[in-house]
Amino acid sequence: MNRFFIIFFFLFATAAVEAQIHEVGVFLGGSNFIGDVGSTTYIAPNKLAFGLLYKWNRSPRHSWRFSYTQSTVAGDDADSEIDSRQERNYRFKNSMKELTAGLEFDFFTFDLHDSKPQFTPYVFTGLSYLFYDGLYFQYGGPNKDKTYRTFAIPMTVGVKGRVFGSFVIGFEVAARNTFKDDLDGSNPTNGNMKNLQFGNLTSKDWYMFTGFTLTYTFGEKPCFCAD
Q1: Gyration radius from the chain CA atoms
Q2: Roughly how many angstroms between the first and final C-alpha of the chain, as a whole number?
Q3: 48, 49, 81, 150: which sits with the fewest CB atoms below 10 Å from its CB?
């Protein structure tokens, strides 16, 4: 992971030399999982999630956004409303580390050099790169195979506003549609474990982040005009 931290901060340092406005800050909230084990409720955070983020505001309506987020996702069949899952009574935990880059679009003009109060809903999407533990169920419980990597598509909606001075606070709900189906151990990536598969093998795993962002803005006043 050290290489990816270096890349993350290199991108920040490179962008900071441009005459644009920048934001650096943190994300704090919760995560939950939607797959073949546990509840199927989409927004039900049950584990802590935290991260770092950087935004390069290219105009009052859009910005490039980079982030690192870390969390544990968990599922428990006892929390499900599906009878067959409750009878099966599986549970799991999986640690995740995620790098994400993409474009954030503001529905209203959000010019932080304007002295007037600023507020806008926004959406974000791009591409995430995920590190996680490959799991499989055997002998009554989840077991770890090895660390795997995969891509996910982030889909985020939120609201944000300037609260005081150079600080911006936001609240967002972010879904991640992964390219894998073994975060909960239901469909092991390891081909030697195909006999341990269960659940819906045609549907990929999802996980959610719900929480607050707090960023500090800085940089020279930009000229938001055509090149």
Answers
A1: 20
A2: 37
A3: 81
- Taking the C-alpha atoms of residue 12 and residue 116, their distance in angstroms, rounded to an integer, is 28
Of the candidates 97, 152, 161, the residue with the CA atom closest to the CA atom of residue 125 = 152
User: Which residues 6+ apart lie within 8 Å of 109 measured at CB?
Assistant: 60, 61, 120
Average the pLDDT over each of 1-15, 35-49, 50-64 and give the range with the smallest value. Answer: 1-15
What tokens does 94 get?
């999986």
Distance CA 214, CA 175 (A): 19
- Please check whether residue 48 is in contact with residue 211, taking contact to mean a CB–CB distance below 8 angstroms: no
CB-based burial label for 62 (10 Å; 0-12, 13-18, 19+):
middle
Compute the distance between CA of residue 162 and CA of residue 14 in angstroms, rounded to an integer: 25
* CB-CB neighbours of 182 under 10 Å: 26
Which of 71, 74, 65 is CA-nearest to residue 11?
65
Percent of the chain with pLDDT over 90: 73
CA dist., res. 97 & res. 28, Å (int): 14
Name beta bridge partners: 99: 68, 129
Mean pLDDT of 109-122: 85
Return the SS3 of 10.
helix
Chain centre distance of CA 173: 9
Q: Cα(226)–Cα(177) distance, rounded to whole angstroms? A: 35
Write b or e for each residue in 16-39: b if 16 or more Cβ atoms lie within 10 A of its Cβ, otherwise e: eeeebbbbebebebbbbbbbbbbb
